[in-house]
Each structure stands twice: as C-alpha cells, then as structure tokens.
Hints:
This protein is of the alpha/beta class. The chain is built from 36 helices and 14 strands. The strands form 5 sheets. Strands 2-3-1-4-5-7 form a 6-stranded mixed sheet, with helices on both faces. Strands 6-8 form a two-stranded antiparallel sheet. α3 packs across α11. β4, α3 and β5 form a beta-alpha-beta unit. It folds into 4 domains: about 5-165, P-loop containing nucleotide triphosphate hydrolases (Rossmann fold, 3-Layer(aba) Sandwich), CATH 3.40.50.300; about 175-260, Helix Hairpins (Orthogonal Bundle), CATH 1.10.287.1770; about 325-445, no CATH class; about 485-615 and about 635-830, no CATH class. It starts with a strand and ends in a 7-residue tail after the last helix. The site of magnesium ion (MG) has 5 residues, from α1.
Amino acid sequence: xxxxxxxxxxxxxxxxxxxxxxxxxxxxxxxxxxxxxxxxxxxxxxxxxxxxxxxxxxxxxxxxxxxxxxxxxxxxxxxxxxxxxxxxxxxxxxxxxxxxxxxxxxxxxxxxxxxxxxxxxxxxxxxxxxxxxxxxxxxxxxxxxxxxxxxxxxxxxxxxxxxxxxxxxxxxxxxxxxxxxxxxxxxxxxxxxxxxxxxxxxxxxxxxxxxxxxxxxxxxxxxxxxxxxxxxxxxxxxxxxxxxxxxxxxxxxxxxxxxxxxxxxxxxxxxxxxxxxxxxxxxxxxxxxxxxxxxxxxxxxxxxxxxxxxxxxxxxxxxxxxxxxxxxxxxxxxxxxxxxxxxxxxxxxxxxxxxxxxxxxxxxxxxxxxxxxxxxxxxxxxxxxxxxxxxxxxxxxxxxxxxxxxxxxxxxxxxxxxxxxxxxxxxxxxxxxxxxxxxxxxxxxxxxxxxxxxxxxxxxxxxxxxxxxxxxxxxxxxxxxxxxxxxxxxxxxxxxxxxxxxxxxxxxxxxxxxxxxxxxxxxxxxxxxxxxxxxxxxxxxxxxxxxxxxxxxxxxxxxxxxxxxxxxxxxxxxxxxxxxxxxxxxxxxxxxxxxxxxxxxxxxxxxxxxxxxxxxxxxxxxxxxxxxxxxxxxxxxxxxxxxxxxxxxxxxxxxxxxxxxxxxxxxxxxxxxxxxxxxxxxxxxxxxxxxxxxxxxxxxxxxxxxxxxxxxxxxxxxxxxxxxxxxxxxxxxxxxxxxxxxxxxxxxxxxxxxxxxxxxxxxxxxxxxxxxxxxxxxxxxxxxxxxxxxxxxxxxxxxxxxxxxxxxxxxxxxxxxxxxxxxxxxxxxxxxxxxx
Length: 836
Ligand code: GDP
Ligand code: MG
C-alpha cells in the first residue's frame, strides 16, 4: 500500500483534535480556544498501514493574516497531503462551510466530516447529507468525533479519494461578473501553475493577497492588468475585492444551506443559551468568574487539598501516619492531654523563675521526658522533683500563660491554679514523662524519611551521605512532592472547567473587559493555558498576529500562578498565614491584576501602542466532560511535575544541600551542623545579595536564596526553604512563621509570583520573542514589576498595620513605594494618546 497523508482541517473547536486522537489513539491536548494547536501534529492511523493524519491548527479562512492560516495553507498547497479531511461543525454549518469553499480550491480531494452530528440531532435540526454532497461536489460523512461515530468511514472515504489522484477542480460558484474577473486573471497567470490551482491563485491575486503575490514572479504587465481587473470590479460593486469575494462565498453557502438544512423551528432556547445568559451577563459575568476561580483555588489549596497534602507532608514525607486513621483519635487525645499538662508545668516554671522561687530541682532533674533512653531511675528522680516542685504552690494560686494554636497560630491566654499543676504532674507521670508516641496507637505506618533513615542505619551508611539523603534530597524533593495532591486537585478542576466549555466563556468575557482598555481578549488565552504551565501559555501567544500585542502577552502571561507556583503559595499560606483560605485565591487575582495593569500601562507607551486585534471566538455548547478525559488531563500535567521533581529539582536540592551544609567554621572548611547554617557557602552568597530584598521586608539570606533557586524551577522555592528551615514540615512551618510576618510573607509571595519565571519558561520567552533585546526587556519588566509590587505591599502594608519602623532604609523605601504607586495609578487612568 502506498504511503498517504490526510490533513485534518477545520475551524477551531470543530473537533479536529478529538478526531485526530480517535484516529491515531494519541492524546493531543484538546482545548476549547483557538491557538491550542499552533503547530501541526502528525500521527499514524490505527489499523490502516501507511496512512498518517495531520492535525492542523484551527482556522476560519485561508487569508494570510494569522500564523495558523499561513501554516495551514502552505502545508495544504505543498505536495505532502494527498487529501483533506475537512472537519465541519454541523451545529454551526454556515460558518464552517466558509473555510470549506476555500479548501476545495486547493486542488486536493476534500472529504467533509460533518462532525458534532450528535449535537445536531439533539437540537432536532435536519441536514440532508446526500444533497449537501451533490451540491458541493464532494463526499460528506456524518461523524461524532466525541462518540467515535463515523470516524472510520470518514477516513476510509478520504483514503479512497486520495487514491483516485490529485486533480480536483472546484465548480464556479460566484456571480457572473466575479467569475468573469476570476477567469480573466486566471488567463494571466504564469503557465507553470497547474490548471487545478489556477482558480485559487486568481482569487488570491484579485484579493491582493501579498504572500501569494510575492510567491509568484508575475510579469509587470500581467500585474498591472490584474490590478485593473480588480479595480474595475471594485468600482462596479463599490466595495473592495476581498469583501466582494467573502460575500460571494457566503451567498453560495447560504444557498446551499437553505436547500439542505432544516433548523428546528420555534423559539426553542437550548440549555447552553440559558446558562450563557447568566454566565456571560454584562454584570454577573465577572463576579461569577471571580467566585468560580476563588472556589477552585480555595478548595484545592486550602480545604480538600490540604487534607491530602497534610497527610503527604506529615505522614508520607514526615514521621508516619495512622493507617485508615485507626488510632489517630486516641493518639490525638493523649497528645493533647500531654501537651496541655506540659504547658501548665512550663507556665509555673516561668512564674517561679520570675518570683525567685528555686526551680533548679525541676531543671536539673534528669530530663527523662526528652530522652527515650533514660533509665527508669532517672524517670523516678524527675517525677519526684516535679512533685516536690508542685507542692510549693498553693492550690488556689492562679498563673496565666499564653498558648499558641499550632494550626492557626492564634494566641490565647489561659490560667491554671496550683491544683491544676498537681494534676498536670500526675498526668505527665502517667505517660512516664514521655510524649505519647503515635506508633503506640492503632496501626502506624512510618513515613518515608523514617524508613530511609532506618534503612541507612542498617547498612551503616556514611554520615555525610545519610545527611545528603535525609536533610537534602528527602527534605527538598519530599517538600515539593508533598504538594502534589493539592496540585492534582487544582488541575482536576481546571481540566473540568476547560472541557465543559466554561473557560472559553472566560476568554469571551475578559475580551469585553480587555477591549475597553485597548487590549485584545486574545491576550487572555495564553493566560488561561498558562494556569497549567507557562511554557505552552507563552507558545499560545503565537496566535496573536499583531506583533506589539504578542510581545506584550509574552511579557505578562507568566504572572499567572502556574502549577509549579502552587506549592510555594500553599506553603506560604500554611506556614505564615496559618492556612488561611484567602491566600491562594489572592495569588490568582494578583496575577490577573498584574496582567491587566501591565497591559493597560504598556499599551500607553510608544512601544506597544496600536489597536487591539480582532478576536473571534466560538463558544462551544456546554457538555459534561467525561471523567476519563478530565482525569487524563489532570494526570498528564501532574506527571510532568513529578518527573521534574525527580530530575531538575533533585539536582537543585543536592546543590542547595551541599552549599548550605558546607562552609567555614573557626577558619576551617567542612560540613556544618544544622544550627551552623549561617556560616554556610549559601548563607555567604545569600547575605551578599540579601540587601536587594531588604526594602521588600524579606532580606534574610534564606528567602533570598530561595527566590534565586526559584528561577530554575518554581518548586525549588519550597525545596530550598524545606532544607534551609530544617527538615520536617512542622519545624519548617514554625521557623518560617518566625522568619516572616504576614506582610513580608505576602511581599515574598508577590515577588516570587510575578518575577521572571523558571528556566523553561524563560527559554520559551526567548524563542517566542526571537529577539535578544526584547527578551531582556521582558525579563527586566517582569523582575522590575515584581519588585515594585512587593515593595508597595511591604511598605504600605507596614504603614497600614502600624508596624512601620522609622529608619533611613524604610523611609527611602516608603518614598519610592508611594512614588511607584502614584506612577502606576497615573499610567492606568491617564487617557491614551491619540495617534495622528
Ligand atoms: P479543535 O479545536 O478542532 O481541535 O477541537 P477539539 O477537538 O479540541 O474539540 C473541541 C470541543 O468539542 C471539545 O470539548 C470536544 O470534546 C468537543 N467535540 C469534538 N467533537 C465532538 C462531537 O462530535 N460531538 C460533541 N458533542 N462534542 C465534540
Ligand atoms: Mg485542536
């Protein structure tokens, strides 16, 4: 059998990719907006030897205005494809056939897959396929790519047409005067153009298609003659040739449609229309969007997500967990009782210290409670010391003390009496002065670090290697992997919103908003794609034909929190804000706000001025996505994240571990203890540049270093902080809580959210900008904007909360923060300069 290539062409959202996947068994990304498929993708058809199909970008016509249209038509004109399978969305047949009329001019056999036939039938519309086929002069097959109906038949027909040979001439179908002009131009074409293609070239020349004009070396005289034919036609019709021909095509189509399509009559409003009336309502659309996205981030990062992430962090990558939570309840009760009792004891020790009572007996008693290996005599000695300590206080004596809630970090004031102390001591004794061990309750599964540590002990692993594995790799990579559940849940929601059709509405809604500021909604599609990963997001900007808009979009797309930024957002929410639910959604809206504000500001500068590109977008009908598809998409994104954790993040954590556990102490170089990290190489580097971040409030070396490793991959922020703030999650959270205030924490979040993205995305920016100067402008803008926003958050945050400390650095920083804020507000509200 001969080799054969079939090109899948059609409007965006007509189902090309779904069809491609069904034919090849591949898993291309199925998206609902233009630009998801920018490059063509090839695959072998299952069960048909030697037949390949090509998934072309979605296009509405074959004009030379967008990269997708150029990619498609160059490919279709080349010798490669032997037939075109034109996917036509049957529920939108009029619009879709416009492209069909152009595809048929390319001299290749065209077979129409009348797709979404399930939707057509459901709506109750009737399409006379036989008649359609004979009117158009090509084969038409009813298909439903989603349900797998008619796919084989469509492919079969395309193969058969391809085998018949190349020549496929379209019938004349325009009004007489236009046909006359076409054939006149056709006669002037160079002779090497094949007869089947002469009509196509003639029409393109009439339309003054610059790309076609350039590709042909016309005689000067012929060119002049063609120009005069076009001008004559324009004069007669009082319109330009491009519009004339567009009209002709639509007239032709509407004649055909009126003959073979019967729409179900009556004022029937589909469910999709009903939903859209609410969801895209002028006033409700934005609030609904805000609530939906808020819920998505809230649920995945804060509620459902944390349940799994806590388990992953504290259990799987921590000490361990209770299998099926058996024993968890009774352990928590015991642990609570024990820690309440210790708090009472501590309160009295502090009280005794302050009143000059002798506490040495308690303090010097063997610290049985802190060491599992203490002998029984030691325990008895300490118990006696505690009892006699407690006996010194009156039963009615009241002592008050502060208690910090571990989860919310809220401080409450409690009081205990002398008799409480005596009870507390006996409770402590009943536990043998030893903190309850979760492993003694229910079924305990030890965490990965514990298992690894025991394993390494058994094989007698060298200390440094053990430290590398536990304090470096497990602490770093484990900290990152611990956030996988949250990310998977987020991806699940995003995939669901995307495939049910809601995301296309968002692009549509935001186009309305963007347009008011002179921006195109097209700029928002890369952002939607970028919530998964910035790299495809940046690539999706290729669909924007206006160069200024495209550059601006490349610059701002990565402001949106991508999947890899979720871990550090969740970590900051957990460690610094006690798991507050507003943190993650606020990061999302901060990203959107940054994009909008940047867009408005940049558009008013000379570099980016210009009218917004037009934006056409088809809103697909809502449909319930299949669970398989959503899970698949979630897993695809999640898996690439896990792979990244095993490679680039693993390497980065090893480097960070080495740099943070080695350094100079007492003049000699060597491995450091955990509490000597301040002398490490990394601390040296971090301290040298930490001043840069001092005005932002997080000028400590740990945060500085984390921001830098974040440039390799954003997950590294979490991995690095995991290593630098000690290994297990609880301690990391405590140490981070101590190192940041709410304000500096949010400034840190804002900076790392908005600054230059990871290496992979930086690479994508470089490729897409394809211009060194523009590349550096983009990186500089991102870092500069991030710095300014974090500066404003920190300085004004301090002023608002009344924690502003008067010192030269703060005063200067505040002046700059206010100045930048005023400048930004001015740039946003200032009317755009009218261009001459
Ligand atoms: P492309 O832009 O042409 O590649 O279109 P996609 O393959 O990405 O499909 C767009 C949307 O239409 C997806 O949500 C598909 O699930 C859906 N879709 C594709 N084919 C059909 C079909 O035959 N019937 C229905 N109901 N939906 C379809
Ligand atoms: Mg596609």
